[in-house]
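Appendix B. One record, verbatim.
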Amino acid sequence: MPKDVDRFLAHAPILEEGPSLGRVFAVVRESWLLNEDPRAVAPRTELLVTRRTALDAADLARQAAGAFDRHGFHRSSGAWWASDGIRFHRFAVRPHRPAAPGVIVGSGLAALGALAAIALFNAVRKTSRRPRSRA
């Protein structure tokens, strides 16, 4: 593997331990222009597939990299890579944890509770105002 490709891969080892079984893996494509410094420029990321087994996700990452003329596998980072001459692409298999439905429902209920509190406050404030009597 050429050293110019290694700079895009060497800085990103597998960062987190995740589940090892089930359909909980995703393939993420991270892309940089070849003239960019990957330590200074964040990659453009694209989620290619989700809810796959580790084996399926690895196969899809290999196939995605294989679609390019120049491609390979980087053992240290555990990612497939490819280049089209303009951009460098890293295809990484990662655990994918979608937002839990309970968190989404809980956030919605909290927002509704806040709106109800505001409406109640305004209603009480309007009824507590009494006209002044002129004596």
